Amino acid sequence: MLRKMISAFNAELDSLSSQLKDPIQRRRLFKFLLVHLVIILAAAVCVYPLLRIFSVSLRPGDKLFSTDLSLVPAGATFKAYASLLKDTMFLRWLWNSLVITIATSVIGVSLASTAAYAFSRFRFPGKKAGLILLLSSQMIPAGMLILPLFLMIMKLKLMNTYLGMIIAYSVSSLPFSIWILKGYYDTIPRSLEEAALVDGTSQVGAFWRIILPLSTPALSIAFLFNFTTAWNEYLVARVVLFSSKQYTWTLGLFELQGQYITQWGMFAAGSMLVTIPVLCVFLYSSKWLISGLTLGSVKG
Amino acid sequence: MASVQFKGIIKKFKDNTVLNGVDVDIKDHEFVVIVGPSGCGKTTLLRMLAGLEDVTGGDILIDGLRVNDLHPSKRQIAMVFQDYALYPHMTVEENMSFALRLRKTDKGEIDARVSEAASILQLQKFLKRMPKQLSGGQRQRVAIGRAIVRKPKVFLFDEPLSNLDAKLREEMRVEIAKLYQRLNATIIYVTHDQVEAMTLAGRIVIMNKGIVQQVGSPIEVYRKPANLFVAGFIGSPTMNFMHGRLSLEGEKLVFSNADIKLTVPPYLLSDQKKHDGREVTLGVRPDDVLVGRDGQDCSDKVDGVLEVCELLGHRENLYINVGGMRLLATVEAFFNRSPGSAVQLCFNYRNMHVFDKATEKRISD
Predict the structure, then answer these.
(1) Is A244 in the same domain as A102?
(2) Is the minimum CB–CB distance between A210 and chain B shorter than 8 Å?
(3) How close is the nearest chain A Cα to the Cα of B80, in Å?
(4) How many domains does chain A have?
(5) For residue B344, what are the domain limits?
(6) pTM of the model
(7) Which of A41, A83, A256, B71 has its CA 20 to 30 A from that of B159?
(8) What is chain A's alpha carbon radius of gyration, rounded to the nearest angstrom?
(9) What is the ipTM for the molecules in this complex?
(10) B103 vs B98: CA distance, rounded Å
(11) Do A297 and B131 touch (CB under 8 A)?
């Protein structure tokens, strides 16, 4: 057994040394190592804050700063998690966020998928201007939209309601979703819909049975974008929601910040918990994010 | 099956007229090939019949019923697209049964029809596969199978073989011919490939610039092209054209230009006096330019210089310079003369064509 392992290791070493002799192979190996080094560094930069928050959430007391660099601190405890769930309305805030986010994502993607189809497939006056308008609306800073959104929601008498939030969120992420989906629909050959029309579907039927199933990668991206935008949003929520019972988690966590003391343990624990739904959605939708779904449909 | 009529069809895209008064009658069970160069409007005509393009003017009738405003699904036609247009998220079986499932056809009936079509097209092994797992030829067969299962009144084929390589194209051409014999359906087939047109068609419709140039059987359009365009388009290699003037020299009608002088026999142009002074174009196919042994019995020989030889296998193309004019002759292989050598050639007047230079219409008998 040991002999086998040693001979395998020797073979690996031989192949590596032979690779290093060849200048092309050497360059390739160097490129490979460099790329992976950059990727590992980038991953570390992304993961480090999360690990620090996790570490803070496990610390006894509400210590934010510590000289201890270990991931699991001395006297680590889940007390912050327990008291967050027991002593605050965190679960309620999480529920509010979930309802608003899911509704926003579903409505946003439904509206965007149909609007994008019209922009992609039909000729109508104002099509180009409409697309440019949608794009330019994305260039307006979010802060500038707060006042108009506030006025709109107030006039609709939807202050402090789920519906008010859902409308505000769906509308604001619609342009991006439309552009993403339109771009994707444009790559789907028209002959597929035409074949469906000749086969007996209506235009709506062709959209439903052919275009939508083929657009799952773009629909997933639009859904994820809507989901993460609505899930993490703070500014609009701050303006529209005023009773703590209706708060989303972003507002709720700020409840933990007092004038003289901030419950950093609970704050960190909450921050860790709110990543779970987003993580689940990302993991689930990753299987839809495959490209090349239309492969084989037409000569290419 | 059904008959199809195009009556004065006009199609405009804004100010661009794509079809300008197309009149074609297609009989029941007929295999009609619409052929023409790119942009001649042949695919647009087919798409209008399928209901995928609006009709600007004129009427389209299927079995005597005006279908101009009828939804594609109501026309009882099936179309095979140039790029196959298979639904990529469905298996071969689902692709083929899609139309029947939409019509809520009985499951047993669907299975029977799909398996019948699959056995005709030898697709039984591939029914559970996705389109991306098939080769180009197999995909095209699935596209044809999707049309067959519907048992439509009219089959429409839009350049179905143009995406296949030469060998596969040949095989599929035979498959389609066999399929027609088996189904005996009304088929309208669009192509720019004249070989497909000549080999498959019962009748050929030749189009150019949105206008029908000639309708006839393959041999008719080959032997008696109605105008210069048809003469140049049908036949490979392309027909030789010589521009010149007809004049009477005594009793003989003579064709002449700066490079060549030929006597036009009466069986080619009867009533010879009528044509005196007329500007014409003479057309002669490369097979009818006789060089070497083929032309040794000719009386009316012309001198030329061999420019290029192209060996094709059993035949050889000879490019011969006569005066300043280049003529193409196709002869038996191994002509064995090097470029630059002097040759004598003559023409098979029986298969020569005369066209009026101004109208470009055929005037020979």
Answers:
(1) yes
(2) yes
(3) 8
(4) 2
(5) 240-356
(6) 0.81
(7) B71
(8) 26
(9) 0.85
(10) 9
(11) yes
Q: Which of A123, A198, A299 to mutate to test the interface with B (most CBs of B within 10 A)?
A: A198
Q: What is the CATH number of the domain that holds B321?
A: 2.40.50.140
B363 domain-assigned: no
B21 plus B145 within the same structural domain: yes
Region B305-313: what's the mean pLDDT?
91
Contact B163 A299 (CB under 8 A): yes
Q: Quick check: is A295 in a domain?
A: no
A12–chain B Cβ distance below 8 A for any pair: no
Nearest CA to CA, how far is A186 from chain B (Å)?
15
Tell whether A51 and A136 lie within a shared domain. Answer: no
Nearest CA in chain A to B78: A198
Residue A191 lies in a domain: yes
CB-based contact, B104 to chain A, within 8 Å: no
Averaged pLDDT score across all residues of chain B: 92
Choosing among B48, B87, B148, which should be mutated to test the A contact, i.e. which has the most A CBs within 10 A? B87
Domain that holds residue A39: 2-77
pLDDT (tens digit per residue) in A195-218: 999 999 999 999 999 999 999 889
CA distance B214 to chain A (A): 29
Which residues of chain B are within 8 Å of residue A196 when distances are taken between CB atoms?
Answer: 87, 98
- A122 and A97 in one domain? yes
